[in-house]
């Protein structure tokens, strides 16, 4: 009897493989990409524990243990970069995370399909601009001398305001440009989630007397909650991570106190000053903390009844 069950199971597996073998072949390329360019290079994490010498290579360089971590934790520049990274990413999360949700709901409420498509296209476009272009545009628009923004402020008797040279104003500009660039792109996921909500629920809410705001509050937002939780967990996992091009292109020597983040510090100290082991230790610390945030956020989501990301 067990032999028959085993043979039946083998036949089912064989038939499944015959039906889906093309999918596994298609997966081979991305799996190879991640193995070659993501996982194999992780062996070089050993640099963080060595006195790395580029002429001797990673494995022939001498071990120094936790020396570079101790040096980082005693460095004022490291703590400044760590503080700036946490502060800027927290502002991005608090101010930027709700933006695509609100924008997606507003787009969903538009009645005219043509106007809706045009608006979607317009708000998506900034995502395809590099931060070099955006920083150049911001420098021209916000210039204290002849920038359009300061010219308009001057007409109402305000300014000139140097948005990119004042620490507080630079932080506000940094966060605002980030929201402007990514809010439209983030709406794609939320609009897709909204289309997955059963239209009959909206009809039932309307029968019960719910207006437009009532349907948004009692139907749309609960329908978006699983998507919001997953994306929030992923954003919390990047709370200590930082992109390089955005702070690097927008920063300048006058605002280094608030603009210098871990990624720019790694570039300045590691690449330009050839302190590879030191910055590898900083990068490893950053990655470990990000993983801790990710796991903690996922566990918290499951504890309050959400699915999480695994």
Characterize the main sheet: none
Strand tally: 0
CATH superfamily name? MetI-like
CATH class: Mainly Alpha
Number of helices: 14
Low-confidence stretches: none
Secondary-structure element pattern, one letter each: HHHHHHHHHHHHHH
Query: How would you sum up the global shape?
Result: flat
Helix content bin: over 70%
Total tally of structural domains: 1
What is the residue-mean pLDDT, rounded to a whole number? 87
Percent range for β-strand residues: under 5%
- How far apart the termini lie comes to 37 Å
Instruction: Tell me the structural class.
Output: mainly alpha
Report the CATH topology name.
MetI-like fold
Write the CATH architecture name.
Orthogonal Bundle
* Cα radius of gyration in angstroms: 25 Å
Description of the structure:
Helix content is about 70%, strand content about 0%. With about 300 residues, it is an all-alpha fold. Helix 4 (about 100-110) crosses helix 8 and helix 10 (about 210-235) runs antiparallel to helix 14. The longest helix is centred in the N-terminal third of the chain and has 38 residues, at about 1-40. The model has no long low-confidence stretch (mean pLDDT about 85). The chain has 14 helices and no strands. The chain has one domain (about 65-305): Orthogonal Bundle (MetI-like fold).
